[in-house]
Amino acid sequence: MSHQPHERVDIALGERSYPILIGPHLLEDDELLSEHIAARNLLIVTNETIAPLYLRPLQTALKQQRTAAVVLPDGEQYKTLDTLSRIFDALVSERMNRDAAVVALGGGVIGDMAGFAAACYQRGIDYIQVPTTLLAQVDSSVGGKTAVNHPSAKNMIGAFHQPRCVIADTATLHTLPEREFAAGIAEIVKYGLIYDPAFFVWLEEHAEALLKRLDSAVIYAVRRSCEIKAEVVGIDEREHGLRAILNLGHTFGHAIETASGYGNWLHGEAVAAGMVMAADLSERLGWLPGADKQRAIALLKRFNLPVDPPRIGAERARELMGLDKKVLDGKLRLVLLRSLGKADVVSDYSGEAFAATMRTHFDTAA
Amino acid sequence: MSHQPHERVDIALGERSYPILIGPHLLEDDELLSEHIAARNLLIVTNETIAPLYLRPLQTALKQQRTAAVVLPDGEQYKTLDTLSRIFDALVSERMNRDAAVVALGGGVIGDMAGFAAACYQRGIDYIQVPTTLLAQVDSSVGGKTAVNHPSAKNMIGAFHQPRCVIADTATLHTLPEREFAAGIAEIVKYGLIYDPAFFVWLEEHAEALLKRLDSAVIYAVRRSCEIKAEVVGIDEREHGLRAILNLGHTFGHAIETASGYGNWLHGEAVAAGMVMAADLSERLGWLPGADKQRAIALLKRFNLPVDPPRIGAERARELMGLDKKVLDGKLRLVLLRSLGKADVVSDYSGEAFAATMRTHFDTAA
């Protein structure tokens, strides 16, 4: 297949600038791929779920290049140094040199691992993302973050490494299970909440079309999400300030994910519940009107997302949040909402309000 | 101890600039350390050989900071992803955050692993080098290269990550075994050969003082080596062109090291024999006068360095060189000598001359 219609977002990062191409059936578009993938030797990294669906079509479309593939087990629990070493083994045994590139075909876990492997192999080779989940398309496409987990902490070991291009094939989303699709929507809602009130309203108005996965709605939501993330990251590539607002709901979310064991709560689900907690704390601090918190909750619910965390206990959650990467100098910084569409990173909030939010959401109801 | 006299080389890399401090007993100099190490939380990475000698003195001198230590087994064979994960375990269990730093106390293996761990932990924290071998002081202090080995290929997995400062304590060299000291000299000779004819002559004239490890001679040799490497690397931080001349003897050397099993030939020893091979090929190509090759061999011999590789077989060596990182696009680039003090990276040399050098040095004498 050639010449699929698509939209394009350009990520401006000087000599590391790259395009995100968004549209249906792009991973089968041989002309588009050969236009954007310069390397002649490619290692495709994918997993057991994705390989039967998309590996062959992608390899067929990449017929101009030499491709090899490594198929990893599927799941966040495999996002480890051990699994990473299987990618290195494949790169070495396929005799990939500095001019080779890694292609990440899959969701965020595959993207994180393949990108990190590319960052480290021979101290850095190119990589190309072909995200096949909504979450990966709106989150991992921008920012250059790659990582694996440590047994005690998520994304503890990683690198900043920008892709050469991102091929976001929206047709792949039709095979995505409902829960995973919804988890991607959670991050999309996040972009509206932290940065763009108009986009939040657009989401309220197009919830139906998005739930039906209509091409036009999905393409717009992915594009707008990438644009917002690019704007935030472009201002602050290495996460010193503004970029932290992208972590809305994530600090609470990490506690949820860790307590439940990686993979039992999807990342987006944990973020959804975490965003509600951030909204709750924002309301307690008098920043966010209660009605706006309710609008956020209502929108998340329409997308079938959880708005309440599991009762893991406030004490335990606090402990789990203590090792979180976002702790700077012993102080817990949180992303909170000034209004729908505006977030701030703060650490001088009232500890009492924080404790109340923690108790309300993590402790067993009295 | 405070206020030890020392020399200083400044590595100019914009906002990642850092100083190399060179002199005796610097790792015990509490004032110097607190002046140059900003982080309040430090993980010292060292090995079983170095720890009994220098860990306590260093921790004593760092009494202003919180220090923890991880003691790894000693040897190139432990420069693996598995050992690396022990550093990550220590960083996590000591609750080191983004503001913490890793201190590499040891030789090149420790520096490479500790630096790579720092490059990856939370996607990059600071690190400080305290090199205790001559090789590490003249080689790893400059360039920002960090890595671990893959079972099939050296330094295959790594990152570019600059230290915040380097504390080259020349008193530590007095406990260095003779073979290791000589291996460091090999790299020092290399700097003369590739870049500085006057330094080569200085080495011929001060061989005796260096062999006796006299402070003034050692400090000058370390300083001049760091300066030369800094000049080369400063021009070409990411190894696209000129920097490759630093690999004089290394492509042949890698074959020697790999065939002998990591650690049986010291890196510097393999480089010494490899440099002789490079000189031999340079002579065959009519670039280097035979008398100059003999001067290089004579100088290496004075430092008790091997000038002939083991007879691993030219075919096997060629194969081992085939996966070398320096292969670009299937073509074997080599660093050769135009004269004593001037090197070039070339790939358009005569294949016949190359084969003759390989046969002469790797095949069993007829």
UniProtKB/TrEMBL annotation, chains A, B:
One GO term describing the cellular component: cytoplasm
Gene Ontology MF terms: 3-dehydroquinate synthase activity; metal ion binding; nucleotide binding
Keywords, comma-separated and alphabetical: Amino-acid biosynthesis, Aromatic amino acid biosynthesis, Cobalt, Cytoplasm, Lyase, Metal-binding, NAD, Nucleotide-binding, Zinc
Cofactor comment: Binds 1 divalent metal cation per subunit. Can use either Co(2+) or Zn(2+).
Catalytic activity: 7-phospho-2-dehydro-3-deoxy-D-arabino-heptonate = 3-dehydroquinate + phosphate
GO biological process: amino acid biosynthetic process; aromatic amino acid family biosynthetic process; chorismate biosynthetic process
Residue span, 3-dehydroquinate synthase N-terminal domain: 70-182
EC identifiers of the protein: 4.2.3.4
Signal peptide: none
Protein's job: Catalyzes the conversion of 3-deoxy-D-arabino-heptulosonate 7-phosphate (DAHP) to dehydroquinate (DHQ).
Official protein name in the record: 3-dehydroquinate synthase
Organism: Steroidobacter agaridevorans
Gene name, Swiss-Prot/TrEMBL: aroB
